[in-house]
Design a protein that fits this description.
alpha/beta; TIM Barrel; eight-stranded parallel β-barrel; 45% helix; 13% strand
């Protein structure tokens, strides 16, 4: 069922001073996540700044991550595109370098209609032999996957789950109702992990896990193992920090947080920019409350 259960980190991409990818730091981060019980790595997603990676960088980032992990936890490659032909190519290349699964966002900017969305996902799913997680994040893409489309796509043998980041619990409940039991739902919002687990979700693809990997793992696994109260308390205790990680466009705040924690992950690629002084001070306040700095 699905590719993983628990906490999958939407890993940031560390950069050197010249804004090239810092592969030494990548290895350090991956080892830290494995030590802290992160259950899966999502590489080159939104948080990984995939939109400013060249295709060569994108594939090399996946290849290196797979090599570092060495099969210890799943590596899921972000491979979405608003060009179906390019999406197929990215998916095939990610599979070739060893990715265990793909996270595929809806087509953005040009968007499409209902049938175009189905055709897009089926075209990619037919060309790969690894599992696919749909990614619904209308706040980023301007497009929501209709519930009946998710239901139809869930019948494809390679489409095994959805990362749901609309924040709409009613929509998620309909997804859970319409899709079969072998279709996995992952929270795409760190502030509502527990509500999504309560509707049958099996985990989270998390920004928060970049700075609190063990706690995010514990939140999910406590719920799945039956300790709902512990999970709920963890959720509520972390939500102020979660909110501060989205004061500005992700991944600007989470990279700022990691640098404050002395991870030295570098800056963000343009057009993203460093946090405003006002937002940074608010982030620091929440980080201190959570004993991160």
């Amino acid at each position: 069922m699905g590719i993983f259960k628990g906490s999958g980190v939407a890993l940031i991409t560390p950069f050197n001073e010249d804004m090239s990818i810092n592969y030494t730091k990548l290895e350090e981060l991956i080892e830290w996540h494995i030590e802290n019980k992160t259950d899966a790595l999502i590489i080159a997603g939104t948080t990984g700044e995939a939109s400013t990676l060249s295709e060569e960088e994108h594939i090399e980032l996946i290849r290196r991550s797979v090599k570092i992990v060495g099969g210890r936890i799943p590596v899921i490659a972000g491979s979405g595109s608003n060009d179906t032909k390019h999406g197929i190519k990215l998916g095939v290349e990610c599979e070739k370098v060893g990715a265990n699964g793909l996270l595929i966002v809806t087509p953005y900017y040009n968007k499409t209609n209902r049938q175009g969305l189905i055709n897009h996902y089926i075209a990619i799913a037919d060309k790969v032999n690894i599992p696919i997680i749909l990614y619904n994040v209308p706040g980023r893409t301007g497009m929501n996957i209709p519930v009946d489309v998710v239901g139809e796509l869930s019948n494809h043998k390679n489409i095994v789950g959805i990362k749901e980041a609309s924040g709409n619990i009613s929509y998620l409940a309909e997804i859970a109702r319409v899709c079969e039991n072998n279709f996995s739902v992952y929270s795409g919002n760190d502030d509502i992990i527990v509500p999504i687990l309560s509707l049958g979700g099996v985990g989270v693809i998390s920004v928060l896990a970049n700075v609190m990997p063990l706690e995010t793992h514990n939140l999910v696994m406590s719920y799945l193992e039956g300790d709902v109260i512990k999970s709920k308390n963890l959720q509520l205790s972390m939500n102020s920090l979660v909110n501060s990680l989205f004061l500005e466009t992700n991944p600007i705040p989470v990279k700022s947080a990691m640098n404050l924690m002395n991870f030295k992950v570098g800056g963000v690629r343009q057009p993203l920019w460093e946090m405003s002084p006002e937002s940074l001070e608010l982030l620091k306040i929440e980080m201190r409350k959570s004993n991160l700095i």
